[in-house]
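Quick one before lunch.
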Amino acid sequence: MSEEKKNNKFDETKYSMDTRIIYGKNISTKWDYSHHVTAPISSSTTFRLDSVERGAHGFERFANTKVFGEETPIFIYDRLGEPNKDLLEENLAYVENGEMAVTFATGMGAISAALGICVGAGDEIIAHHTLYGCTISLLNNWYPRYNINVKYIDLTNADNLIGALTDKTKVVYFESPANPNLDIIDIKKIVKIISDFNSSRDEEHQVLSILDNTFSTPFCQRPIEFGVDFVVHSLTKGIGGFGTDMGGAVIGKRKYKDILLLYRKDFGAVLSPKSAWAILTYGLPTLSLRTRNQIQSAKKIANYLNVHPAIEFVNYPGLSNYKYYEVAKKQMVDFNGEFSPGTLIYFVLKGKNPAASKENGSKFMDYIADKAYTMNLAVSLGHTRTLIEHPASMTHSVVPPEKLNERGIDAGGVRLAIGLENVDDIIKDLDEALKIIL
Ligand SMILES: *Cc1c(COP(=O)(O)O)cnc(C)c1O
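Model of the pyridoxal-5'-phosphate complex:
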């Protein structure tokens, strides 16, 4: 019997995930966790190895779980692994229903690692055309230097993937909902098309899927349950939850853990133990509480914006007139099976033409930056405070104005990330700001 099993006197599967997200795996070989109510902060860059023999054994075992399994770790050096990151990784894998998680310094650290272990020179990535700005920058500014080609297509129509897959394709990469316009991609359909394509290819040439689940968090969507190979997260956002720490994670099958650990060790995007501790202690255990509250507010705000005369259209997965509502309802569900359309809203203000709509958007956001108590003009999301931003000039400024359209971004699009304020207060501030447009 494994040490973990022996120590675990609870059958946590009898409890709801709302409760389990607070207790995590409860028993861990990573630390004497069973006697600390809150995990201790570990802050040690290096670890005493006792003897050369134990040191050698530690190095032998690092990133070699195929041979040595997951026995009690021999910690060596922070960049290889240490208790706080390891504890967080166990719990992230647990809530996302993956076999393992490896954390990184930031979301971009996680994304570049997930892609980095899958592709090499000559390979091709197929990506949905609407993505987080820095991911576009990674794919467009760096990968061509390594002779890795990126093909952008519209995955909201999953059938587009069928003709796009080639012998060179190694990865299909997407976000759902996508940043910033909340495009929804039918995850099961994408997985099915890839698996049909893979059935005639050998183990070496399997196409892998990577989904950035940052906008949903595992509270709203667990793509691994639909067959996605890797989920990546920016822990900086909803999972971290308080806007105090940066972080990232890759979650997936156990067989990829070693190579991810090697990648992290050598490229060096290591999550700080103090950030790991904060996300483990404050972020994850409050994820259900915060997200449920933010979704309630987001629904009410989306309904308010949806009928406002100054607004051209609203994208929110929870609006029944949203074009992706039916797909969202199928795949965005919380731990108890309730529809959970997320905490972000995207909308466009009216205007005679895109330039006028952009002008109105700027006026509106500048007014909020100056006058609103409940909202901050700031990038990021999943914060205690409501954040509003203009993707075309901020998070997605990597996209030149003439290319915004083909990336599904509107010149005047506004992204609103709901916080924990009283929802009527947010609506009051939005209402004041929208009056200046009418
Ligand atoms: C913020 C964000 C990232 C990058 O995360 P960092 O922690 O800032 O590196 C990646 N994907 C999405 C969807 C994001 O919103």
